[in-house]
Amino acid sequence: xxxxxxxxxxxxxxxxxxxxxxxxxxxxxxxxxxxxxxxxxxxxxxxxxxxxxxxxxxxxxxxxxxxxxxxxxxxxxxxxxxxxxxxxxxxxxxxxxxxxxxxxxxxxxxxxxxxxxxxxxxxxxxxxxxxxxxxxxxxxxxxxxxxxxxxxxxxxxxxxxxxxxxxxxxxxxxxxxxxxxxxxxxxxxxxxxxxxxxxxxxxxxxxxxxxxxxxxxxxxxxxxxxxxxxxxxxxxxxxxxxxxxxxxxxxxxxxxxxxxxxxxxxxxxxxxxxxxxxxxxxxxxxxxxxxxxxxxxxxxxxxxxxxxxxxxxxxxxxxxxxxxxxxxxxxxxxxxxxxxxxxxxxxxxxxxxxxxxxxxxxxxxxxxxxxxxxxxxxxxxxxxxxxxxxxxxxxxxxxxxxxxxxxxxxxxxxxxxxxxxxxxxxxxxxxxxxxxxxxxxxxxxxxxxxxxxxxxxxxxxxxxxxxxxxxxxxxxxxxxxxxxxxxxxxxxxxxxxxxxxxxxxxxxxxxxxxxxxxxxxxxxxxxxxxxxxxxxxxxxxxxxxxxxxxxxxxxxxxxxxxxxxxxxxxxxxxxxxxxxxxxxxxxxxxxxxxxxxxxxxxxxxxxxxxxxx
Length: 613
Ligand code: ADP
Ligand code: MG
Ligand code: ZN
Hints:
Blueprint: H1 2-22, E1 25-27, H2 30-38, E2 42-47, E3 51-56, E4 68-72, H3 79-85, E5 89-91, H4 98-125, H5 129-135, E6 140-142, H6 158-172, H7 174-179, E7 187-191, H8 198-209, E8 212-217, H9 228-242, E9 246-251, H10 253-257, H11 268-282, E10 290-296, E11 314-317, H12 323-333, H13 345-351, H14 357-373, H15 381-395, H16 404-423, E12 432-434, H17 442-448, H18 459-480, H19 488-503, H20 520-525, H21 538-565, H22 567-580, E13 582-584, H23 585-593
Bound molecules: adenosine-5'-diphosphate, magnesium ion and zinc ion.
């Protein structure tokens, strides 16, 4: 590796040397050069046997002027003292054997650079104080004006934008929030599939608020030496505190934030970085005006400690765009593209179900390139179609496209979950239903986020949860008289809930107030010995299985009954959902309100359990 670094440096030193020689150099008169030196306009002067080269001070140079100038050498004993007096760096004043000096100096500088870097690397290796030095340059600071993105650049993710408006307000006038005693969530986690615009959205928040934007990407930490990642995190937060109000953005949080101890070969560096991040999150006063944001497309592998209240506790879903969203994104990206009269973006939006913002940007770009290649002066339908074909070819392997029949089944399945959730009181608010291929309906997604057990759940609430989970499959049975593989994930979750109800919380019947779950410490101790043998007898094991089955069957029947009662609504909603690919919770509630349906009593009699914690 050292050899590689050495070679890389040697090559770059050579290239740098070349560039310096090729940079524009203006010939000026010797007297002009002396005048500029006297006026304090020069930074550095190199005297060679034939010429005098000077570099102007950056701040004194208009950008249209070259910084390097050259003058004919004149044997002037006054020159060097005068330059020194004017504070100019003078090189090569003791010339004569100039060939040797210039050779030496051109060798010495790269060698010095190599030495310094090697020293750095070794320091970082030992994770000594040098690690902190290497961490210094970690955070990228986007200048507030240069690459400013705004909300106008992000389309098709209106709900996410809405949730972030409050953050922008806060960054604009932190004093106002402080005065009103309002607190903002400390950390905001953008969750969604790759290419949906999470990074762009974070930058746009900074752009809209007009504040500085510090960003690091989790993937940059993966290959670092031990200690450097933690130092970078510390440094990032220190910088941010100085620049408040500002945004600190950690992209690809999962690369640092994987659950600790999850993998066999514990990754010491990542754990140190993660621990440092947790320390910074905790020691952070949100009133200083720094907003923390992070993005991930794999929320389920994050260390639960990161998602605890007071850390990244606000989750904003950045989902795949529906048809209207795709059209808006296409419009954003074709703002600067000349479109022919026959280019129908609406048709393109219909053809690209399942694609994300990055794919759509890619299509517009490909189409523009095709038009250029064909010498056209506008992008037409032909180019757009071909661009879609190309992008799809690239996607096919990772992104299956649903057939219309599958889409319809998914619509009924999702509406099954949604209608049962609406019919049962106390369910988490229904935000959105989506049948965008591979899209994640808000309902399913919220449940997937690893949330800490923050509330007491009653038996009734767990039963309601089960009914909602089993309702997708129930809807398929009701409409098609047949089930599909689409419910696998639901079934798994339902089984887990039922198992906990019976084994851990003694909510089954006929088993008594006993827990059949071993406590954590015991499980850890004999993890090698296999799952709890000899804890209870075979008859108890059979009773547990039977009880789990009874609970799930009862809730499945309850979901089926609720849906049978709402069959007309289910079919009406499916038409609407198939047309637009997404329905918001409000749209669905509006559909429900048309004919009133009487609430249905639970099928299984439930013991009276206190509802509040
Ligand atoms: P993510 O971080 O979610 O993977 P990015 O923000 O990196 O996605 O998106 C990559 C590019 O795709 C963006 O720079 C932008 O050009 C385009 N893009 C993605 N989503 C959108 C969107 N919602 N609106 C407009 N452009 C988008
Ligand atoms: Mg990104
Ligand atoms: Zn489901």
